[in-house]
């Protein structure tokens, strides 16, 4: 899952982003509304978490921009305003959800997962394919009932491959969905992550390399 987090409270934004990355999310962070729209114009995000009160362009402005552009990105508004009128106004802009500050990190994570499961960004909470079970909310993966010790990046790669439903997933798509904007597209990070994931999944091999095309999950 790829998430954009826009909040001018830098310490809060950086801390939340680090927590989300530990849960295998690819997170890009910005601190004002203009920067948020710049990133949204370049990258595809499953969920955008927007602080309502940001400099240069407010969260309301960014929210309207996402809706008008029909990006398909789900929107979670963060704000210190907790009144009913504020929540109604935020949802009326086209936001999918609304969370007041201060918030519990666990609730934020649950809401992000819930938004990512909504169409058109369809993501079942638990995937079960070819003996591999991926429990996304609990961040656990099993093969034939045995718990796998995966890093957050390996978990993210496995999620993208399993969501491919047997189709070939290119290295470029893996890089886009499982890494953030700071990833170097010319590194061998994808190849290394797939290699270590394949080793941890064990035999018989279930992640297959399709030469010059990408990777496929399945028998």
List the helices and strands and how they pair.
Layout (H helix, E strand, L loop, with lengths): L1 E5 L3 H12 L4 E5 L2 H10 L4 E5 L7 H11 L4 E6 L4 H9 L4 E4 L4 H12 L9 E4 L2 E4 L4 E4 L2 E2 L4 H12 L7 H8 L10 H13 L5 E4 L3 E4 L2
Parallel strand pairs: 1-2, 1-3, 3-4, 4-5
Antiparallel strand pairs: 6-7, 7-8, 8-9, 10-11
Helix pairs in contact: 2-3, 6-8
Can you offer a commentary on this structure?
The chain has 219 residues and is of the alpha/beta class. The protein folds into two domains: 115 residues, 3-Layer(aba) Sandwich (Rossmann fold), CATH 3.40.50.2300; 92 residues, Orthogonal Bundle (Arc Repressor Mutant, subunit A). The protein contains eight helices and eleven strands. A five-stranded parallel β-sheet has the order 2-1-3-4-5, with helices on both faces. Strand 4, helix 4 and strand 5 form a beta-alpha-beta unit. Helix 2 packs parallel to helix 3 and helix 6 packs across helix 8. The chain is elongated.
């Amino acid at each position: 899952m790829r998430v954009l987090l826009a909040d001018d409270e830098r310490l809060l934004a950086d801390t939340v982003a680090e927590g989300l990355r530990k849960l295998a999310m690819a997170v890009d962070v910005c601190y004002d509304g203009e920067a948020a729209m710049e990133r949204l114009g370049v990258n595809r995000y499953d969920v955008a978490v927007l602080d309502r009160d940001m400099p240069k362009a407010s969260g309301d402005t960014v929210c309207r921009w996402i809706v008008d552009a029909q990006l398909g990105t789900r929107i979670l508004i963060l704000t210190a305003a907790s009144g009913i009128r504020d929540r109604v106004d935020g949802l009326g802009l086209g936001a999918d959800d609304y969370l007041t500050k201060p918030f519990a990190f666990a609730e934020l994570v649950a809401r992000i997962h819930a938004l990512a499961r909504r169409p058109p960004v369809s993501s079942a909470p638990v995937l079960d394919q070819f003996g591999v079970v991926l429990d996304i909310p609990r961040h656990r993966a099993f093969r034939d009932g045995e718990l796998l010790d995966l890093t957050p990046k390996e978990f993210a790669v496995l999620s993208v491959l399993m969501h491919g439903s047997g189709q070939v997933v290119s290295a470029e798509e893996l890089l886009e969905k499982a890494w953030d904007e700071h990833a170097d597209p010319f590194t061998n990070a994808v190849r290394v992550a797939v290699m270590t994931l394949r080793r941890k999944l064990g035999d018989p091999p279930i992640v297959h390399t399709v030469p010059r095309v990408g990777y496929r999950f399945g028998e």
